[in-house]
Amino acid sequence: MCRKQYGTENVILSDIKKAPPEVYRSGPFVYADVLDYKNLRELVVNNRITWLVHYSALLSVVGEANVALARKINITGLHNVLDLALESCLRLFVPSTIGAFGPSSPRDPAPDLCVQRPHTIYGVSKVHAELMGEYLHHKYGLDFRCLRYPGIISANTQPGGGTTDYAVQIFHDALSTGHHECYLRADTRLPMMHIGDCHRATVEFMHAPECQLSLRTYNIAAMSFTPEEVSTEIRKHLPHLKVTYNPDSVRQTIADSWPVRFDDSNAQRDWGWKSTYGLEELVSDMLQANYLTYS
Ligand code: VAH
């Protein structure tokens, strides 16, 4: 999406490993380690980078399994990116998440401003990112922008160690084996979003005039569904899908601490956010996009 809008040579994808061809089709790719400040600075200076979108992080479940690494990547890595953005006057986007809330936060809906006491290192690191970005904005004028993403559903990426992974895996299972074993209870409702809406929200927010922004961090919403609801919608296309439930205590406990729905009225008012994919559109698109892989 970004490369269509800004030109292939003007968007550089970076990571410590190259994405598979079906995800990364063309344009510049460079190796970048978020823990190597010198490497990051050279990339920014040599390529005259002006906007930096920082996605490096360990997600909720994989972070709980390796707290020390999650602290390094999610917090030390973040500080490298914050320092670089200040030094090079970059516009900086850092995603936050529904995981930045905890059991003492309002859950239905969760507003932009409320108690945030998450119970995962992932959530703690994302609250830290929100607060550090806002502090550096007010103290030094850093153009820090942050969106709290719901669970993001994408057809061409595999689940990445998050609590919402089931909502990606269920499509692969529906098209391959016809059976999905869900690690959450059937009635576990979580905010979710199609990758297309996620990308568009990020680009529109990065373009929003500074004068329109009353916050540095915004919730964005699209839909909230349960495993039972998404299974029922998939069965409209694949009637034989069988779903069994085997709740995993770690992931169920994390999911039960997160918001059920997001209040994104500030994003709608300040910079015109509006989602386009609901559950019906999501399921239809995911099955079509993956069908070729399994047919
Ligand atoms: C996770 N998919 O499950 C991520 C996300 C909304 C949660 O940040 O950890």
TrEMBL record:
It catalyses: L-threonine + NAD(+) = (2S)-2-amino-3-oxobutanoate + NADH + H(+). One of its GO terms (biological process) is L-threonine catabolic process. GO terms for molecular function: L-threonine 3-dehydrogenase activity. InterPro entries: Epimerase_deHydtase (IPR001509), NAD(P)-bd_dom_sf (IPR036291), NAD(P)_epim/dehydratase (IPR051225). It comes from the Eukaryota. Pathway: Amino-acid degradation; L-threonine degradation via oxydo-reductase pathway; glycine from L-threonine: step 1/2. CDD domains: TDH_SDR_e. It holds the Pfam family Epimerase. Its EC number is 1.1.1.103. Residues 23-221 form the NAD-dependent epimerase/dehydratase domain. Belongs to the NAD(P)-dependent epimerase/dehydratase family. PANTHER family: L-THREONINE 3-DEHYDROGENASE (PTHR42687), L-THREONINE 3-DEHYDROGENASE, MITOCHONDRIAL-LIKE (PTHR42687:SF5). Catalyzes the NAD(+)-dependent oxidation of L-threonine to 2-amino-3-ketobutyrate, mediating L-threonine catabolism. This is L-threonine 3-dehydrogenase, mitochondrial. It comes from Oncorhynchus mykiss (Rainbow trout).
